[in-house]
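Q: For a teaching session next week I want to show students how multiple molecules come together into a single three-dimensional assembly. I've collected the sequence lines for a complex. Could you give me the predicted structure tokens for the whole thing so I can convert them for display?
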Amino acid sequence: MIYVPTVNDHSLKESLTVSTGLHFLMFLFLYFGLPHIIPPLPAHHEPIPFDIVTIAEITNTRVADQPEAAASPPPPQQTKPQAPPPAQAKAEAEPEALMPKPLEKPKPPAEKPAPQQPDLFGSVLKNVARMKPVESPKVTDADKKADANAAASNLGPSFSSRLTITEEDALRRQIEQCWNPPVGARDAQNLIVEVIIDVNPDRTVANTEIVDKLRYASDPFFRAAADSAIRAVRNPKCSPLELAADKYQQWKRINFNFDPRDML
Amino acid sequence: MRSIRHTTFSVQKLIAVAALAVIMFSPSARAEVKIDITRGVVEPIPIAIPSFYGNTPSEAKFGNDIARVVSEDLVRSGLFSSVDPQSFVQDANSLLVQPHFSDWRVLNAQALVVGKIETQAGGKLKVEFRLWDVFSEQQMTGLAYFSIPSNWRRVAHIVSDAIYKRVTGEDGYFDTRIVYIAETGPQTRRIKRLAIMDQDGENNRILSDGRAIVLTPRFSPAMQQITYMAYYNNRPRVYLFDIDTGKQTVLGDFDHMTFAPRFAPAGNRVVFALSESGASNIYTMDLRTHRIQKLTSGTAISSAPCYSPDGKKITFESDRGGSQQIYVMNAEGGNAQRISFGNGNYGTPVWSPRGDLIAFTKMHGGRFYIGVMRPDGTGERELVEAWHAEGPTWAPNGRVLMYFKEAPSSQGSRPKLYSIDLTGYNEREIQTPTDASDPAWSPLLP
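A: Of course. Below is the structure for the complete assembly, covering every listed component.
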């Protein structure tokens, strides 16, 4: 006689299904919910052990990134990648009907090109009443030397698996020279652009990616700001990037946050 | 049975814990190195604009002229610099096939405009262009326009606007016009006539005959009309003027002097000041029903009213507090709040078309300033300081201001028009055939 475990088997299957379902739900919760509950670990908060070895004489130390700015989870619903602009959108315009007839023959004055002002566009909004000198991010010789030191000191094998603050500073200073931020735009303080770049082993930029693609597609001000960020990392003046050759694994993917707050 | 069940659960638990561990401890898929860039170098974007390609000599001439006007527009904005055409390597024809971006990168061009002119059946011109990002080798925009050949200058301004908008995110302001007061004659018998021109100073023409002095012209948002104050028969009153027909009508029939008119954003009413027994108050008049509404009262001198772009507020100047200052009140009157608190007197407030700022004239220590502040009075910045500067007017995108300015001169008053970027840089004189004052910027042409 063969024992047929009908009832028990059924309940086993059922509980298995329930259990699997519950675990799946828990998995979903952990995957999507956890990053919101537990703030992600800041990207780099323990520079001290390594800096003693590689820090240069001159550096721009700064406050650590705020945790919430460090890494927000990627939006679960990724938008479609931006479609390439149509080769040619045809805008039919027949403006001639709208032009009033000139009463007099126009006398074009000899257009003399306005002299270029030496201070044409400084770093910040101008106020003639209180002209306060604002430090412009000029690279001094000392800075350059520091950059060179930073690069040189990292040619050999390094202790660190991360970029040092000095190395990050060198890269930051380099990109600052190539970024032309839209300071006159409306609400320029809100035009913060996150760009992820993939870097080739020869330190040239392989790929650029705007993180907030939805806003790029819908907000022309953001799109202009994002384009200025892309131009900064793509600028031949800033190529190749100032990065230590032996740390490719660390810098093959870099996350830039372009924020004009110090310019406004 | 129990043992099987137990085992199954353990395996599941194990998988869950493993999955959790993977999620929690795996290196993030995102970039590890994170760098904040909070400063940059604000400088004009180098843009290369070769002559638009034309197959015939006449098309090539249009192509040349349009590229030149586009280049002049963009450079005048201060946000672009022109890459010297002498240095161009690639010719207009091969550009149409495919730009050699490396050639343009060598010239330090960040943007490249490639255009083409074609004559259509019927004699119309087809003007098409593409804007390329030289670094990323991507097309940023591409458009085509059709127009009669005599309109080529306007087409060039429209192309400039499209490029400006794509690169800055803001609407352009090149396809616009300026009305202003053309001043001629000796200081004792100054002739002040209404004049209009393109924003770059081209197509200048005089609209009034000069028998009466005309002051403070303002564009209607609907474009066909200008309002201003004029002294006909020695009676200073507010008039409306139709640009297309040249017809002039007086606004309302008041016994007293009316002045400082300005259209509401919808173009359906005019707000102005009316002077009566030493006091001056603000009124509006509906242009359709001619109904008049008094918005302020009292014995103070209140003047220079200007609506906010949403039509809900009015800013104006008043000496109700003892000195001339700027106030903001509701569009129906009431709830007036003083917003200017700096040293000196403030006047001629003008609300930015984008709503974020109010431009003003300030007088302090014998000097004049053109400045901007937020509508709540914060963030005051002076952009221009001069012996005499007055009458700011906004470009329709709220990015550029125009005003008139003069230096002390042995020949008396010689005002000229100037524009300046909102950042306080790139001040430029607008070339006019005569002395010029009181500019008013039109909206974008329809």
